[in-house]
């Protein structure tokens, strides 16, 4: 077990929020409040009433014809995406029940993140995955599929990641099993894109592919970096584009650091031209964002441009304007890490989250996330109130899903 990270929450000026010894607010007055099981059924009722009245106000502030048109568009959107919409509603109310009635922030998984390997053919400067703090051995194919079967019992969405997932010889078999045998409704894979030409079976199994790209300028002076392999990645992107039904099935994910601010804007333009979805976050260093970026005028201008394009819907961009601002301006948010649980290659699941380096249990042994989280909670307590310091997309998204679901839904539909 690794030593407690005393620097983690306190270095962001959140002194007193989180006990550095126990990684939870156990030394705060809040503990009794968190542990007590007090039913708050009326809160759920209030939430539903509040949503209904917000919708009524929104529609009544428009003209009649416009309100009808908006209402119809909303209804059509809801019908077209009904499985997704139903899943989101179910998940939201399930978590509302957990939070308000059972008084716990250990929410149900929405999608699982499966690290299939720690190996990688690159060595990006910001990456911690090649040498993770808690190392785990890869399982053979059949055992990994057994792991996927267990995951499927609690969620229908899986994201394969690593290390570099395409380095695994059986990655096509794993994706095929996930989609066709286990019927995951969303099978995603995130890759550096260098080996896609050798894993073309993936195109028939994935619902969506995420390719990481940090620059559109090749740079052979930095071997093992993403810019060093740019031409192969661009070639493979075109291959992927020719194999997926829509260009929007491909997302380009870019990590912002001080050196590539201009490149990120170019990547966003490139996504617009190609029809790819643009996604971004900043590099975390020792799990903390580079707060200096906030003072950088070029960075500020970039954030404004991203938000503006998302607001105008001039091209597909991941996240809503509010979410993007929280993510890129390092705003405060409450993280619900069990919403996107991280599973290591041998089936170990982090609790409460990967940055705190604690394993709640092994999925193959415990048999469900629910049991792993219950074990983790017993060992390490409830989710700490660390006021969102790990500004990664999934973490910020978890906050909006749990706490501003209706705002998120409204911004997504609008
Ligand atoms: C760990 S990688 C694994 C998948 C694959 N090797 C790749 O690079 O896409 C998953 C994603 O996390 C991003 N990432 C890695 N280290 C990061 C960090 N310190 N801060 C923010 N993003 C990071 C990568 O750029 C990539 O988009
Ligand atoms: S390609 Fe992915 S896993 Fe490999 S070093 Fe870069 S970010 Fe890390």
Q: What is the element layout, followed by pairings?
A:
Blueprint (H helix, E strand, L loop, with lengths): L6 H4 L19 H6 L5 H20 L3 H17 L1 H20 L10 E4 L25 H12 L4 E5 L9 H11 L4 E6 L10 H4 L2 E5 L17 H14 L6 E7 L4 H14 L2 E6 L1 E2 L2 E2 L7 H16 L8 H8 L13 E2 L4 E3 L8 E4 H4 L2 H12 L12 H11 L1 H9 L1
Parallel strand pairs: 1-2, 1-9, 2-3, 3-4, 4-5, 5-6
Antiparallel strand pairs: 7-8, 10-11
Helix pairs in contact: 6-7, 10-11, 11-12, 12-15, 15-16
Task: Describe the structure concisely.
The chain is α/β, with parallel strands linked by helices and 414 residues long.
Topology order in helix (H) and strand (E) letters:
HHHHHEHEHEHEHEHEEEHHEEEHHHH
| CATH homology group of the largest domain | Aldolase class I
Helix percent reads 40-55%
Q: Identify the CATH architecture of the largest domain.
A: Alpha-Beta Barrel
Structural class of the helix and strand makeup?
alpha/beta
Largest sheet: 7 strands, parallel
Strand order of the largest sheet: 6-5-4-3-2-1-9
The whole-number mean of residue pLDDT values reads 84
Describe the structure.
- The chain is an alpha/beta fold.
- The chain has two domains: 20-100, no CATH class; 112-413, TIM Barrel (Alpha-Beta Barrel).
- The protein is 44% helix and 11% strand.
- It contains 16 helices and eleven strands.
- It has helices spanning 7-10, 30-35, 41-60, 64-80, 82-101, 141-152, 171-181, 202-205, 230-243, 261-274, 297-312, 321-328, 363-366, 369-380, 393-403, 405-413; strands spanning 112-115, 157-161, 186-191, 208-212, 250-256, 277-282, 284-285, 288-289, 342-343, 348-350, 359-362.
- The strands form three sheets. The protein has a seven-stranded parallel β-sheet, covered by helices on one side. The protein has a two-stranded antiparallel ribbon with strand order 7-8.
- Helix 11 packs antiparallel against helix 12 (321-328).
- The site of iron/sulfur cluster has 11 residues, from loops.
């Amino acid at each position: 077990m690794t030593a407690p990270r005393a620097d983690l929450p306190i270095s962001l000026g959140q002194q007193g929020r989180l006990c550095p010894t126990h990684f939870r607010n156990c030394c705060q007055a809040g503990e009794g409040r968190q542990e007590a099981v007090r039913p708050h059924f009326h809160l759920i009722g209030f939430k539903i009433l509040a949503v209904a009245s917000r919708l009524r106000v929104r529609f009544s502030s428009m003209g009649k014809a416009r309100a009808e048109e908006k209402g119809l568009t909303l209804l059509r959107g809801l019908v077209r995406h009904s499985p997704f919409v139903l899943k989101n509603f179910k998940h939201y109310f399930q978590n509302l029940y957990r939070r308000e009635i059972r008084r716990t922030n250990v929410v149900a998984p929405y999608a699982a993140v499966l690290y299939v390997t720690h190996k990688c053919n690159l060595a990006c400067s910001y990456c911690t995955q090649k040498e993770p703090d808690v190392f785990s051995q890869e399982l053979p194919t059949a055992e990994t599929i057994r792991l996927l079967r267990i995951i499927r019992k609690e969620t229908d969405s899986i994201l394969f990641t690593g290390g570099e997932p395409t380095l695994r010889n059986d990655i096509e078999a794993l994706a095929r099993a996930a989609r066709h045998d286990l019927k995951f409704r969303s099978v995603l894979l995130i890759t550096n894109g260098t080996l896609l030409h050798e894993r073309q079976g993936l195109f028939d199994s994935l619902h969506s592919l995420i390719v990481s790209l940090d620059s559109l300028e090749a740079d052979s002076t930095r071997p093992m970096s993403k810019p060093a392999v740019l031409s192969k990645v661009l070639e493979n992107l075109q291959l992927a584009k020719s194999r997926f039904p829509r260009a929007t099935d491909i997302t380009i994910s870019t990590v912002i650091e001080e050196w590539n601010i201009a490149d990120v804007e170019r990547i966003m333009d490139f996504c617009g031209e190609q029809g790819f979805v643009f996604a971004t976050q900043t590099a975390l260093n020792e799990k903390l964002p580079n707060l200096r970026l906030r003072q950088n005028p070029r960075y500020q201008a970039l954030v404004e441009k991203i938000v503006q394009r998302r607001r105008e819907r001039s091209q597909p961009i991941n996240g809503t304007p509010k979410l993007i601002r929280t993510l890129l301006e390092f705003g405060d948010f409450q993280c619900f890490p069990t919403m996107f649980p991280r599973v290591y290659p041998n089936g170990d699941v982090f609790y409460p989250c990967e940055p705190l380096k604690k394993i709640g249990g092994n999925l193959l042994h415990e048999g469900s996330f629910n049991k792993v989280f219950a074990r983790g909670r017993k060992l390490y307590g409830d989710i700490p109130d660390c006021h969102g310091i790990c500004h990664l997309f999934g973490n910020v998204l978890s906050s909006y899903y749990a706490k501003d679901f209706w705002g998120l839904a409204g911004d997504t539909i609008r």
